[in-house]
Amino acid sequence: MPSPTYLSEQDHVQISAAVTQAELQSAGEIVTILADRSDGYTDIALAWAALAALLALSALAIAPDFYIGLYDRLIADWGHQWSPRALFTLAAGIATLKFAAVLLIQFWQPLKFWLIPPPVKTARVHERAIRAFRIGAERRTLGRTGVLIYLSMREHRAEIVADEAIATKVDPEVWGEAMSAMLAHVREGRIAEGMCAAVEKVGAIVAPHFPRADGDINEIPDRLIEV
C-alpha cells in the first residue's frame, strides 16, 4: 500500500527555504524528515490476533456446552457424537477463525493504530528517528553539528535528534520549545507550517552555541525527505 502524500511541491519548497534561512544563522545543519509511519507493527497485530484466539479457547473451556450446542444447531446434526478428536477440531476451528478475523480487521489502518499501545508508538518512533539520524545526519558535518527534525504522522509523534557537538551543549529539554511550535500547527493540519516553525526554533537554539563562520558551506541538502 503506497504511503499518502501529505505535502505539496510548494510545501516542500517552503520547508527547504526555512532550512536555508535557519542555517544562515549558525553552523548547524538541519535535516527534516516526514514519515507516514515509523513501523509496520506486524508484531502488535499478531499479538492482538493471538490474544483473541486464546480468549476464544478460554471461553470454550469455560462454557463448552454453549459452543457445542451452537455447532449442533448450525449443522442440524442431532446424532453427532462428540469424541475428543471432534472437540479438538472444534477448538482449533474457533481459534483459527478468531485469529484470522482480528488480523483482517486490523487492515483498517485507523483501528490498527488505535490498538497500538502509546508507549510502543513512542519507542518505535524514537528508534526510527535515531536510525534516520545515523543515516542522514550523524557525523556528516565537519563540526558534528547536524540536527534531525522527524515527524511521524500515523503515530502523532515527533523527535528532534542532535549530533554530538550540539548535544553536549544543548540539554534535551531545550528542544521542547521547537517541538511545541511544530505540533501546535500539525494538530490543526498545517504540517508545512509546523515543520517551518520547528526549523526556525532549532536554528535559534543552535546559533548562540555555533555561530555561522565565514566560508561556511552547506554540507547536507536542505530539502525535506518525505517517506
Automatic annotation (TrEMBL):
Keyword Transmembrane: yes
Transmembrane segments: 45-67, 87-108
Domain of life, per lineage: Bacteria
Nucleus listed as a keyword: no
Residue span(s) of domain TPM: 142-204
UniProt KW keywords: Membrane, Transmembrane, Transmembrane helix
UniProt-listed InterPro entries: TPM_dom
UniProt xrefs under PANTHER family: BLL7265 PROTEIN (PTHR30373:SF8), UPF0603 PROTEIN YGCG (PTHR30373)
UniProt protein name: TPM domain-containing protein
